[in-house]
Amino acid sequence: MSDTQQNDLARKDGKDSEADHGTDHGTGAAPAGVSRRRLLGTASAVGAAGLAVGAAGGAAASAAGRHEPASVTALTTVGTDTVAFHGAHQPGITTPLQARGHLVAFDLAPGAGRKEASALLRRWSASARALMAGEPAAGHDTGVALDAGPSSLTVTFGFGRTFFDRTGLTGRRPSALDPLPPFSSDHLDARRSDGDLWIQVGANDALVAFHALRTLQKDAGAAARVRWQMNGFNRTPGATAHPMTARNLMGQLDGTANPKPSEPDFDRRLFVPPTPTAGPAADSTASEDTAWMAGGSYAVVRRIRMLLDSWEQLSLHHQEQVIGRRKADGAPLTGGTEGTALGLDTVGPDGKLVIPGNAHARISAPEANGGAAMLRRPFSFHDGIGPDGTPDAGLLFVCWQADPLKGFVPVQRKLDRGDALSAYIRHEASGLFAVPGGAREGEYVGQRLLEA
Ligand SMILES: C=CC1=C(C)c2cc3[nH]c(cc4nc(cc5[nH]c(cc1n2)c(C)c5CCC(=O)O)C(CCC(=O)O)=C4C)c(C)c3C=C
Ligand SMILES: [Fe+2]
């Protein structure tokens, strides 16, 4: 069994034990040694108000002069959930979607090179490890995340194409980092695209996520400057009656047909193999000296604005024709439930395909793209109202794959040519980042690139 599968199973065990105790957060293991039943027992002694206030409310109650028992503050497992920093792969790739996300790109400062980059990655990894374990950041903790647990915090680091020239490592740049091809529907803003370094922060608490982001920005010191930052969100764990696929801001279930860890080719699709596999591709990879990417993955990041004013004018029927799935439950228009395969050849009584030829789900399906697949792990964004008076909202589309030329690129090429959804979205920014494998104990992320 792969590390990914083990990780997922470990989290699933957590969920199951949580379910046994009657919670529905679906976010991971309960705090060690504290059963849900015991907490409920404690809470019932202080009344229903104690149940509702949770951690933040507990602090407020103390400030108001009421001294609640400390155990009341531990009613939820959302705060106590942790994700491992060390492992074969970096966290934040197969981790379940978190409620809050920050994507931030940095450029190395003028004059900063490999030495400074290596010291920076060492500092960043130390902070990420500590914060993900629920410890304060070394030296300069701001206290913003005080009272909260790690809340499934993940920090993921990547290198952009330009990083390699700036650090004298051009010879070790993977060809997979070659620029993405232009697409006819691109409206890309160069200032909000690319970057030498990229960080993805995710957490199930907004203050925990902000605290991590701020810590990492301060860690950058004089070595690197923020190039762009994007802030996103997803549904809060526990907001729905049962764990389910996330909805995006168009209201669709988004993520249904993602590759699953239980599928035999999951790791192969997502992660760079330790050694080049046999065959023609192996020769070119071997000559690249990219062994440092073993266990890593490539992240394609796109800020995709949704033209919500136009989208929301469509009838439900038309919206469903655009995607090829039912809006309420994500089932294919050919019937069944969310998990049912798309009936791509099914024809209706009118002789037409039930899932239209230009439906987004049809065009992006691996069956229609020579098996090309990626793991989509997005955040929604809403940055207010744009100068044109429409919502500046949409999807921070992040997808993961072992090779962008076998994942994002062929699918986006196809979508670019005839996706019914493209009339309602606009790609505004883009980045491609090499995300190295996870750091082993005592190692920092990227050490195998920077110190070999
Ligand atoms: C190039 C890759 C993709 C981009 C860009 C993209 C943008 C995008 N997608 C949605 C909404 C949905 N996408 C869905 C499925 C789906 N999308 C992609 C790829 C891209 N999407 C793939 C590979 C798939 C899976 C296709 C399949 O195998 O069936 C769906 C259906 C539900 C699901 O499977 O997730 C929705 C809904 C939006 C709103 C969007 C840009 C804003
Ligand atoms: Fe999609």
Automatic annotation (TrEMBL):
GO molecular function: ferrochelatase activity; heme binding; metal ion binding; peroxidase activity
Cofactor annotation comment: Binds 1 heme b (iron(II)-protoporphyrin IX) group non-covalently per subunit.
Domain Dyp-type peroxidase C-terminal: 245-439
Occurrences of domain Dyp-type peroxidase N-terminal (ranges): 90-234
Catalytic activity reported: heme b + 2 H(+) = protoporphyrin IX + Fe(2+)
UniProt cofactor(s): heme b
Sequence ranges of Basic and acidic residues compositional bias: 9-24
Compartment list: Cell envelope
Gene Ontology CC entries for this record: cell envelope; cytosol
Record PROSITE patterns: DYP_PEROXIDASE, TAT
Region (Disordered): 1-35
GO BP: iron import into cell
Pfam families: Dyp_perox_C, Dyp_perox_N
Keywords from the named record: Heme, Iron, Lyase, Metal-binding, Oxidoreductase, Peroxidase, Signal
Enzyme Commission numbers on file: 1.11.1.-
Recorded superkingdom: Bacteria
Functional summary from the UniProt entry: Involved in the recovery of exogenous heme iron. Extracts iron from heme while preserving the protoporphyrin ring intact.
Family membership: Belongs to the DyP-type peroxidase family.
NCBIfam families according to UniProt: Dyp_perox_fam (TIGR01413), tat_substr_1 (TIGR01412)
Name the UniProt record assigns to this protein: Deferrochelatase
Phylogenetic placement of the source organism: Bacteria, Bacillati, Actinomycetota, Actinomycetes, Kitasatosporales
